[in-house]
Amino acid sequence: MKQTTNSILMIRPVAFRMNEQTAVNNYYQKVVDGLLPATVNAKAQQEFDAFVEKLTAVGVDVTVVDDTLNPDTPDSVFPNNWISFHENGDVALYPMFAENRRHERREDILDVLEDKGFVIHNIVDYTSAEEDGFYLEGTGSLLLDRTNAKAYCALSPRADEELFIEFCEDFDYAPVIFEAFQTVGSERKLIYHTNVMMCLGDTFAVICSECIDDKKERKMVLDSLKENGKEIILITEAQMNTFAGNMLEIRGAKDKRYLVMSAAAHQSLTSKQIEQLERHAEILSSSLDTIEACGGGSARCMMAEIFLPRK
């Protein structure tokens, strides 16, 4: 199994704004005062288009699908939460915490991919769990070490343990389960998505280990990464708050490796961390300030990796 891919799906926003339904447990979202909704959306579209341009310029195969005005899906720019694509031709569909995010799941997107020559054999649908109030938000909640068949999950209101174990059984991954916290005011609260505090590359892992408050759990996660020979690059909680954990390694032309992140994440890194990362991949960053502030997600959340076979 390959850990990285050259192909990604991205959804271009048409009515992007802060989603009031996700703000209840996504502490990264902010209200951007004084901006009209149309201005927020226009800024998000500019950031999105510039980001796609940077990716395609280095040879990444980006499938861009436009969002629709109806139904209302303010977070559609983050497709990795509702879908994942696998090398055996499986597509997984995930149960979403926010009701208005459930409308992001669109069958026509699968048609677009099939028209491009991707092969879909089977759809594994976990979405009925929503009826019982259980959620697992795609590769936001679960970080897949595809090569070593391990899946990492920080439990939260959006990442149910039993559902995660069911996914691992269905897809043959060994589960690595823990809790990760961030400081909100004077309290420690669960981080809503694993991919905010951790990134898994082919030969490295970026992790905010200080978020794993339980020392045994922290050691277990770090040991698991070391066991697979990954160089561990630690980030601080302050860096995590600028989305320095929300990165994704992908491949460009001639299989060159790129580590994709936002400009804010890139700026937060120390020269030592940059040096460590650049031993593994070239850093590619793009300004996503509006998307990060209103959406509470960053570069990694915007890219759904496509591992499907091709005709």
From TrEMBL:
<dbReference type="Pfam" id="PF19420">
    <property type="entry name" value="DDAH_eukar"/>
</dbReference>
<dbReference type="GO" id="GO:0016740">
    <property type="term" value="F:transferase activity"/>
</dbReference>
<protein>
    <submittedName>
        <fullName>Amidinotransferase</fullName>
    </submittedName>
</protein>
<dbReference type="InterPro" id="IPR014541">
    <property type="entry name" value="Amdntrnsf_FN0238"/>
</dbReference>
<keyword id="KW-0808">Transferase</keyword>
